[in-house]
Design goal:
heterotrimer; A mainly alpha (about 70); B mainly alpha (about 375); C alpha/beta (about 325); A: about 70 residues; mainly alpha; elongated; C: about 325 residues; alpha/beta; 2 domains; five-stranded mixed β-sheet
């Protein structure tokens, strides 16, 4: 699974990042690489079963605590 | 330098707004906490959504040809403007991941039960990536086709359901207590009608800027009416059991069985719903990529599409631990969570813009990359 | 194949020890539940079929008079597959108002309603002698199982079942047999339309039922010419009386069982949403006291292909 994921990211780099280097669009390259690296790190963390809090649950908890609302 | 050269017309915009808004609400219909009065809640919701839309339309009217990111830069200056932009882009990004997760959940819980969700998600996001890379013009053209065929199919399934209609399930009308009804209406306004705030990234590419407001209003009203129609249909087919379902539209459509020949149409119907979800995700993915590109003054947004899509997919799989949390989020938290993005910040921007009289000046932030894509005339309100 | 399990899901998964393939539940046609089990509660069997995405909403639900397993062992009608036969038999019986046609969807709607109680068609085995003189066991669908909540509390016979159908406006066709002129005459129902209006009259709950029935002469056993205006009027009168008996029979039985199978509660809820909050709490006691007012208009609209009997007394 992990290997598959790495393969996927390598594929993305080949298809998306390499052309940027060829075109010498350095600014684009930086932004894209940062985003992709973030994605890679996050997916790796999830792969290795590191628990993140669920985002929507956090927002729900926050809203419920701060406001008393109608609705079921 | 223009990041986007495509231009769309007003019909395209109406269709795109429709596909954008109907897509995910066909899965999880809005206003359901009002029970049989959901359709009334949606009708009230249209009014609220139109008011919200009026705010961001005034904003885009003040800065024709500017995307949200450019507007924030002009109004708030280079630093604060960037923060505001990031907040907005986060919302679009999160919304996109919600839609993606929603569709993945729908298909993996009802149709492809033994397929890993990630496979379903990947197949959806891949098309979205391809569309977002092709630009807004392509997305809009897809929208025109998808929405026209989808609308036809919606009418067809409703027609097939005719013999199952029990109008009495709608009665007694207005039995829902007023606060609950209004909360449901607000829910319908924020999800999905006022989510059209994401079109602040699309409005600049309308070929005739004068059409922006009429097209948006038409789009929102039309969507609202169709959603109200869906709510009525689900209620009169499913009766009191409607409230138990996670995806009532699906269950309404599975009911269709005409002489044991025309049945099991839900898979086709779901494909149309999915293609509208594709429109929504594609618009949001496009918006986030374009916005980020403008934020960092890039020459092209295209290299960002794939990384953004990867991040969006990861979040999509990690939004909810289970459908119960999803219902809790949609019913309770989302109408509050969405409000700053849909109403408060645009309103604030508008007020500050009026105070600072920044509708005439051309990008006082002075960023090279932030020049207007159209670069031409601007009108005064 | 038969299987057992502590829950429906488990039972279905336990089948994998016998079935060579994974079961495809979308092809389920009927769910038959034994009477004894139904008396203890039916929801525990229904939930799985509502929760799992595979079973279709047009599955027919049936109650077997004795053991459900036995029903599935014998063919029904001309179909060789018992389930398919049952699936068709329910619909045909319902067409003639001899048993209610309850799909899974209908069952879910009735179970979700606050006051409307569930009804389910009944099925039982009977023995019949075939052409070759061999005794054959076959399946029959007729009558109604009445539930209170999710527990079966009683049954309606064929006449009461049609009474139920009259009230629910579900009668499509059927035969009304009346005694007249020294013989039995049948009248075939060609059109029936009913309308329920609930009313609250000085602390009394009244349900007005307006019924409009058209029939044609199905067959006659006497040789009298029945197509004279006077005779027709007499027939219509007797026909009305028969329908009245069926309806009051059904209402009486339902009131005895304290099961609002007609949806009167929901009708009151729709018409009197304000008063309903009070009524709802005492509905179980209120329902048996409901008065029925019938307004039946029944016409004989045709006499079939012949006008008068071919054979006459000479």
């Amino acid at each position: 699974m992990v290997l598959l994921l790495i393969a996927l990211f390598i594929l993305i780099i080949l298809l998306e990042i390499i052309p940027l280097i060829k075109k010498q669009q350095w600014r684009e390259l930086t932004v894209a690489s940062v985003l992709l690296a973030a994605g890679f790190i996050l997916s790796m963390l999830i792969m290795f079963d590191i628990d993140f809090p669920f985002l929507a649950s956090l927002i729900s908890d926050f809203v419920e605590k701060s406001l008393a609302l109608p609705g079921s | 330098m223009a990041l986007e050269k495509g231009r769309i017309n007003s019909t395209g915009l109406i269709m795109l707004i429709f596909g954008f808004a109907v897509g995910s609400s066909a899965l999880a219909p809005s206003g359901r906490i009002a029970g049989a009065d959901a359709w009334i809640a949606i009708l009230i919701g249209i009014a609220e959504a139109l008011l919200i839309a009026a705010v961001f339309l005034l904003l885009t009217k003040r800065f024709p040809g500017k995307t949200l990111v450019e507007i924030s830069d002009i109004v708030y200056g280079p630093y604060l403007g960037k923060i505001i932009s990031v907040i907005f882009l986060w919302y679009f990004f999160h919304l996109g991941s919600l839609v993606l997760g929603n569709y993945t959940g729908y298909f993996s819980s009802l149709f492809l039960v033994r397929t890993p969700p990630i496979v379903l998600l990947a197949s959806i996001i891949l098309i979205c990536v391809s569309a977002a890379k092709k630009g807004i013009e392509v997305i809009t053209r897809c929208g025109v086709i998808i929405v026209s065929v989808g609308l036809f199919f919606y009418l067809l399934t409703t027609f097939f359901l005719f013999k199952y209609f029990e109008i009495k399930y709608l009665q007694p009308i207005l039995a829902t207590p007023a606060p609950q009804l209004l909360w449901a209406a607000h829910g319908a306004a924020t999800f999905p009608l006022a989510e059209t705030v994401a079109f602040l990234m699309v409005f600049p590419f309308l070929n005739n800027k004068r059409d922006t407001a009429p097209a948006t209003f038409t789009g929102i009203t039309f969507t609202g009416l169709v959603m109200a129609g869906l709510a009525v249909r689900n209620t009169i087919v499913l009766g009191p059991s409607e409230k138990a379902y996670i995806y009532p539209s699906f269950h309404a459509i599975t009911t269709i069985n005409i002489a044991e020949i025309i049945n099991r149409v839900e898979i086709v119907a779901s494909l149309f719903i999915l293609s509208m979800g594709f429109l929504k995700t594609a618009v949001l993915l496009y918006g986030v990529s374009l916005g980020t590109a403008q934020l960092c003054s890039l020459r092209s947004y295209k290299p960002l599409v794939v990384p953004v899509a990867v991040l969006m997919s990861i979040l999509a799989l990690h939004n909810f631990p289970n459908p119960v949390e999803f219902v809790r989020f949609v019913n309770k938290a989302y109408p509050v969570y969405a409000l700053p993005f849909q109403l408060v910040i645009p309103l604030l921007t508008l007020i500050i813009a009026v105070i600072r009289k920044t509708d005439q000046r051309d990008g006082n932030s002075g960023h090279k990359g932030l020049r207007s894509p159209t670069g031409s005339k601007r009108r005064q309100i | 194949m038969t299987t057992t399990g502590e829950t429906v899901s488990q039972a279905i998964r336990n089948l994998s020890t016998q079935a060579s393939h994974r079961l495809f539940l979308s092809h389920t046609h009927v769910v038959v539940i034994g009477r004894e089990a139904a008396e203890k509660g039916i929801y525990r069997f229904i939930d799985f079929f509502a929760r799992d995405p595979e079973p279709r909403p047009n599955i027919r639900v049936l109650i077997a008079e004795k053991e459900a397993k036995e029903i599935m062992r014998h063919p029904s009608g001309v179909e060789s597959i018992p389930a398919l036969g049952l699936y068709r038999a329910v619909q045909t019986a319902a067409l003639n108002a001899l048993a209610p046609d309850i799909t899974l969807q209908d069952a879910k709607i009735r179970l979700a309603s606050e006051t409307t109680e569930l009804v389910v068609p009944l099925t039982k085995l009977y023995v019949e002698e075939g052409i070759d003189g061999e005794k054959k066991t076959r399946v029959d669908v007729a009558g109604t199982a009445v539930f209170r909540g999710d527990k079966m509390v009683g049954t309606l016979n064929k006449k009461e079942t049609r009474g139920l159908h009259w009230i629910l406006d579900k009668v499509k066709t059927g035969i009304i047999v009346i005694e007249h002129a020294g013989g039995k005459q049948s009248l075939e129902i060609v059109k029936a339309k009913s309308k329920i209006t609930p009313e609250i009259r000085d602390n009394e709950l009244v349900v007005k039922i307006k019924l409009d029935v058209n029939t044609i002469l199905g067959d006659q056993q006497c040789v009298k010419i029945l197509t004279e205006p006077d005779e027709i009027a007499l027939l219509e009168e007797k026909q009305t009386a028969e329908i009245r008996t069926e309806i009051t029979g059904a209402v009486k039985k339902a009131q005895e069982l304290k099961a609002d199978i007609f949806g009167f509660g929901d009708e009151f809820h729709r018409k009197y949403p304000e008063q309903w909050k009070k009524l709802e709490q005492h509905w179980v006691e209120l329902f048996p006291a409901i008065k029925i007012e019938l307004e039946i208009k029944s016409d004989i609209k045709g006499t079939g292909a012949i006008r008068e009997p071919i054979y006459r007394l000479r």
